[in-house]
Amino acid sequence: MVRFDIITIFPEVFGSYFNQSILQRAQKKGLIKVFLHNLRDYTTDKHKTVDDSPYGGGPGMVFKIEPVYQAVKKLKSKVKNKKSKIKTRVVLFSTRGKKFDEKTARRFLQYQQLILVCGRYEGVDERVAKYVADEEISVGDFVLAGGELAAMMVVEAVARFIPGVLGKKESLESIKGSYPVYTRPEVFSPRRGVKWSVPKVLLSGDHKKIEQWRKIRRPIPKPED
Length: 225
Description:
Elements: E1 2-8, H1 15-18, H2 21-28, E2 32-38, E3 51-52, E4 62-63, H3 65-78, E5 88-99, H4 102-107, E6 113-117, E7 123-124, H5 126-132, E8 135-138, H6 148-159, H7 173-176, E9 187-188, E10 196-197, H8 207-217
Parallel strand pairs: 1-2, 1-6, 4-7, 5-6, 5-8
Antiparallel strand pairs: 3-4, 9-10
Helix pairs in contact: 3-5
């Protein structure tokens, strides 16, 4: 079981995503646990301030280190167990981070707790990356308004490798490969005189030929250890 603790100022955006389909079933089975934490709950002033203007000037606002530090400290303490050592990893989403990929998702499986820090605005005080987070992760060569979508992607990517989350292990594209797929009807006519047909080989019942057809179109990848 992997516990995901997500630190964000917009916890409400996650509800519908985590309460549907595969991730909902995984939570009901106890295969994963997802907890959402509002960063404002870890502030000490009456205005629940989580950001401030950057030193040196410049546009935008920067997440303060204090609430992030307090949140991570509190969440780590929640899973401490004297009888067995709990492995925790603190991940900060950043455009400067290491590119998230399948190898990283598999590596994250060795941890019982993943604390995901979602930044916003101009960024997060660099001392979070330097002293609080264990690593910085980027989900692509593009910029998002915050780390919330990145957190959803990481949770799902990691969860898919946990036995029992998917119906069959073969459902993983890293195992079966990614190739064109079809289903009924055999022939679809969007308008008169036009027919979009399923390749005959997939209707042949010849599993060897079908496997060869799929392999040609997309070789089955070999996942990294």
